[in-house]
Design a protein that fits this description.
Length: about 260
């Protein structure tokens, strides 16, 4: 059965791949992007591929955008994918950059979800929301700790929604990607250079070497997009979905080790 599915952050990466995959499967996709130029580019690409897909503008930090979108569209599934990453040592990272991440990754995602949840309940129909968080929801990666903190927050919100909305037949899931080559991680690490100065900051520049090296063997994002699509369409999916399996095993071991970690 065809589903009505709205995806945020569909201009690139997982959101874009998932949107095209779902449209190819015959679902009614509303692919949303942050700014109008992205909208024009995506519309052109949809036409080139001969697909049926609605493209619209949604900046999740813009309350008017959220009100417009939630009023305009009736959906069955929300894939909350929009996010940003700002890197750097959290002991020195400018607070305004951290705040901007929380505005997008936490408050924007929650406000949009609240709008659709209210519609689901008012119309007495089931719904599903899939939050794209990160492996960083479950452990803290050095020098992207603030980003991980925003994903920790979204994961807690998702878990709370899962419990609180079960009585209304609204299902909640998270997808937790490992390190995939969408460009998102690379640009997130690049942001350090916009404010970090080795002459004035106390964190040595060599501290970032391991973070940069971790980006050298990133995975094909197609498999993660397929995971997101499968979770969205599965009426009995797991709540938490870490992908790939190697990342899931790694995170589980880190969580075990955390109980004996020293201060």
């Amino acid at each position: 059965m065809s589903k009505r599915i709205l995806i945020t952050g569909a201009a690139s990466g997982f959101g874009k791949i998932a949107a095209f995959d779902l449209a190819n499967k015959g679902h009614q996709v509303i692919a949303t992007v942050q700014v109008y130029p992205q909208m024009s580019d995506l519309i052109s690409e949809v036409k080139e591929q001969g697909l049926e897909m609605t493209v619209d503008k949604l900046d999740v930090t813009n309350a008017k955008d959220i009100a417009y979108i939630t009023q305009k569209y009736d959906i069955d599934i929300l894939i909350s994918n929009a996010g940003i990453m700002e890197g750097g040592p959290i002991a020195e990272q400018p607070i305004d950059l951290i705040r901007s991440m929380f505005d997008v990754n936490v408050f924007g995602g929650l406000q949009l979800a609240q709008g659709f949840i209210k519609k689901f309940i008012d119309e007495k129909r089931p719904g599903k929301i899939v939050f794209i968080t990160s492996m960083g929801e479950l452990w803290t990666v050095p020098y992207v700790a603030a980003y991980c903190a925003s994903k920790h927050a979204m994961g807690s919100i998702a878990e709370g929604l899962k419990t609180e909305l079960a009585q209304f037949n609204i299902k909640i899931a998270t997808c937790n990607p490992g390190i995939f080559g969408t460009g998102f991680n690379d640009r997130g690490v690049d942001t350090i250079n916009r404010w970090y100065d080795p002459e004035s900051n106390f964190t040595p520049s060599a501290a970032f070497d391991a973070t940069t090296e971790a980006l050298e063997n990133q995975l094909d994002p197609q498999s993660m997009a397929e995971c997101i699509v499968n979770v969205a369409l599965d009426e009995n999916s797991n709540f938490r979905n870490v992908h790939p399996k190697e990342t899931e095993d790694f995170v589980k071991q880190l969580q075990t080790d955390a109980w004996t970690a020293k201060s």
